[in-house]
Amino acid sequence: MVLHAAQLYYRDELTQDVVAQRLSVSRATVSRLLAEARRLGIVRIEVVPPEQADDADLGEQVARHLGLQRVWVARSVRGISTGASLAPQLSDALATANLRPGDVLLLAAGQTLHEAAHTQLPSMPGVLTVPAVGGMEEPDAWYQSNEIARHVAERIGGRVKLLNAPALPSAQLHQRLLDEPSIRRVTELWSQARCAVVGVGAPPAVRRSIASSVPLASEALRSAVGDLCLRFFDRAGAPVVFPGGEYVFSADLELLRRIPITIAVAAGREKIEGIVAAARAGYIDELVTDRQSASDLLEQAPPA
To answer: What is the spatial distance between Cα 62 and Cα 70, in angstroms, rounded to a whole number?
Structure first.
């Protein structure tokens, strides 16, 4: 009845008196039903300031330019980290994904995503968060996808499945990990994911931080413009594999392409080429970024 009342009033634009007649209830009951619809999230009412409307228009332009389903544009706030600034738009993107209890949400590693995971996120009870990449040897928390997956699960009221495997194992360990049942139970969830949230790494040559086990001196990596889950790619979106990279323990680029909604969270001039390549290759469907990066994408990227 809550849903029916909301549809009649908001979608069909009937008055509360007419809705009451249709449902054979009092007008006061209709008012209570509509309030309940807003409380449950069946109906969402948003007042959009003019500057946010401008951001939405900019996002639509970038989405058309890159061939993405949607681009969410945030305004940078002085004194707040990039991830925290992008968090409200990431929250909106996840809410719009309409994940249900039991759905799998893949999460990569990275500083921006780690920062966003510690701020506001929508309530998504029962959603299962799963790391999309193994852990790294670095001490910083943003290198550990298990930590990010756990924090996101706590924020959304979901459940978490941890991946107890290194991101860059040796050839021998890689095969043993593939054969380990507890690891396989996690990796099998990757192909079941309804949504993934990933960061876009900058080109290795200009990265301020990167896993120490990635051989930056490798000739192969010179053509890389970015990476998703330590899966590097060039300007055309073609995979770039460094020595030992064939054993990277993460969701690969083709798998990310098949996930219904893959959301990239990235901002900064050094990431523009990587964002463009990932979008054009179909590895990402949506983008959460800031105004400056959105403007740079319009200026620097050729139209799709």
So the answer is: 8
Q: Of the candidates 290, 261, 287, which has an alpha carbon nearest to the alpha carbon of residue 274?
A: 287
- Greatest alpha-carbon span in the chain: 74
Q: Which two tokens stand for residue 146?
A: 């298990």
Residue found under tokens 């852990």: 135
d(CA 73, CA 80): 16
CA atoms within 13 A on the CB side of 31: 4
What secondary structure letter does DSSP report for 97?
T
Cα-only R_g, the chain: 21
How does pLDDT run across 237-264, given as a tens digit for each residue?
999 988 888 999 999 999 999 999 999 9
pLDDT single digits (tens) 112-125: 899 988 887 999 99
pTM for the model = 0.80
Q: Would you call 257 exposed, middle or buried from its count of C-beta atoms within 10 A (0-12, 13-18, 19+)? A: middle
Tokens of 154: 């706590």
